[in-house]
Design brief:
Three copies of one chain form a homotrimer. Chain A is of the alpha+beta class. Chain A folds into two domains: 89 residues, Roll (DNA Polymerase III, Chain A, domain 2); 111 residues, Proliferating Cell Nuclear Antigen (Box). In chain A, strand 2 and strand 3 form a beta hairpin. The first copy, chain A, contains four helices and 18 strands. A nine-stranded antiparallel sheet of chain A has the order 6-2-3-4-18-17-16-10-14. Chains in contact: A-B, A-C, B-C. Chains A and C meet through helix 3 and strand 13 of A and helix 2 and strand 9 of C.
Chain lengths: 246, 246, 246
């Protein structure tokens, strides 16, 4: 069984982190909270979301695996305002999730968890560089890059972390020296390029986090980690680099 | 002759109630005010609007019947702000209406009243159930229903008034027990289904009314009545039910 | 060399005055400031912009002629907010302009000035009528005219300045008697008609000017002059009339 209530803004925060590149997802519900791990259809971006029971106003759950149409759920939450309490209740026999707020009850049919694509095993990653930065800076650089190109390069040079993009004729660059970063730890100069298709949606969520941990390498997958739900939730994205033939 | 002035927000309130499903309408202007009665091209929804002379800041009229392109009139009022005084003057010889506000005068040609479709005679309706409810509740249920279906069912069960919709897989329901209603008077359980095509536009207007009188039956036309123009105007909609083959 | 900084809102004000009907423009940079003179591809509207060095927070320039893709520059400035300081620096060897704000640096390639269309010599104009009016009035009349027609007529009758438009069936008119004008000087009644394609975009800029000098004649080009950049810039538009066969 699963019965919980959560503030609308926290539910939306978690949901939006997934919708960045997923239409549907499988969730593990257990006594401690909710987790999901999913990869986008093109195998470029992976998300690992943990929402502890402390993120909820009330939470009663034994154990269940459910799969949800995220677009439909997000649509149904569209009329909820900040502070509204969203009540969730699983109808295991009917394979449905009841979502109620402000007196209106939606009964949504669930998807078959076995029909959701499994996340592939990811070999352990150990990027040599770690940057901690205000998420708003990442968002600004991504928006600027979009005016010029369809990809963005993140890298370090000495004690500077930079985000840059180059189009056929124009360039854009945001340089953040160590004093503008929360932390910069690196054993070598790194540089990897990522598709803005993914970074655009992801950076909208990242923008709200005051501390984003970015782990980078040379033409290597990037990790981005940050807290949601007032510290009661964790998001980790892994994004594959775009490797151009030289 | 007809010469009047009215606050922009009241004129828009009356106009929007008609534009919900009409592009043009015929108006009876007389010494007491303005009335119009019209039916949509598909014969599904009828509106009866009465705007008493007290709704106007000034009102001088003997008697006239005019027909107006509502879309054009609404467009011309688009730059008016709350509190602006709209001045109206009929040029009977030129078949034109002068609409002035903020120093700008629009001279709009009128339509030929005989070219406007006549409203059919409606047999007298006596729905067995009467609900009085805050219009905002109706609007919320309609918006929720639209996420799931293209029609909405209104009904009563015991002392509860409900609005619900069902799609192929999902459902949504708003239940209002008697204590959440202003009034509920019913001699039997009732239930009728209506197209959201009509209810969507109508409920935008209903939403602003703190008291909407809904009269309902079993697969029977619904009446919705409410006041506009600070109590100086009356709107009554009659909406035909959608009757599904069973 | 050219190196300058300017408040975002002033840079946008100047840029928008050009973008009203131009995609690219040639700029004369000199020790006193920046000037540009350009005509739209259809030869209907001309703009003459002067931005003195006093409009800038800092300004160092000897002499240069550069050509800029205005749409791209405007796009790049899209994330700047009121009060942001825009830093500009010309890289003459690389034929590039560096635009920086909030830590982000864009490097934009310049166009070849010789590829930009030259403005034709304009014979000296001496319209017989001069009106000084609040720019917001002009904007209001243009917006009202657009609901009815694709052109607008400006003229005087006695001591009244009017803006009017007529469609097939409807008319709209804004009359401004001398007491509602800042100045009206005329030796004869004048009347000229202009395409709203041009007046729409131009009037958005005009709207912000509390004093616009309009010079008019009979089926004669119109001049519109106003200050920008807190008085440190001048815009002059010349717009050709639309002359209908009678």
């Amino acid at each position: 069984m699963f019965k919980a209530s959560i503030k609308a803004e926290i539910m939306n925060e978690a949901l939006n982190a997934l919708i960045a590149f997923l239409d549907e997802a499988k969730f593990d519900l257990n006594t401690d909270g909710i987790t999901t791990k999913a990869i986008d259809p093109s195998n470029v971006a992976m998300v690992d979301l943990k929402l502890s029971k402390a993120a909820f106003e009330s939470f009663t759950c034994d154990s269940a695996v459910i799969a949800i149409d995220l677009i439909k759920l997000s649509d149904v939450l569209g009329m909820a305002r900040e502070g509204d309490l969203i009540e969730l209740e699983l109808d295991e026999i009917g394979h449905r999730l009841r979502v109620s707020y402000n007196g209106i009850t939606y009964t949504l049919s669930l998807l078959d968890p076995s029909a959701i694509r499994k996340e592939p095993k990811i070999p352990p990653l150990s990027p040599p560089c770690k940057v901690i930065v205000d998420g708003a800076q990442v968002r600004r650089a991504v928006k600027a890059a979009e005016k010029i190109s369809d990809c963005i390069t993140l890298g370090t040079k000495g004690e500077t972390f930079y985000l840059e993009a180059a189009g056929d004729l124009d360039q854009v660059k945001l340089e953040l020296t160590k004093d503008k970063l929360i932390e910069l730890t690196t054993t070598q100069e790194v540089k990897s390029t990522f598709s803005l298709d993914y970074l655009d949606d992801i950076s909208k969520e990242v923008a709200k986090a005051s501390e984003v941990i970015i782990e980078l390498g040379k033409d290597y997958p990037m990790k981005m980690k940050f807290k949601i739900a007032n510290g009661n939730g964790d998001i980790e994205y892994i994004i594959a680099p775009r490797i151009e033939a030289e």
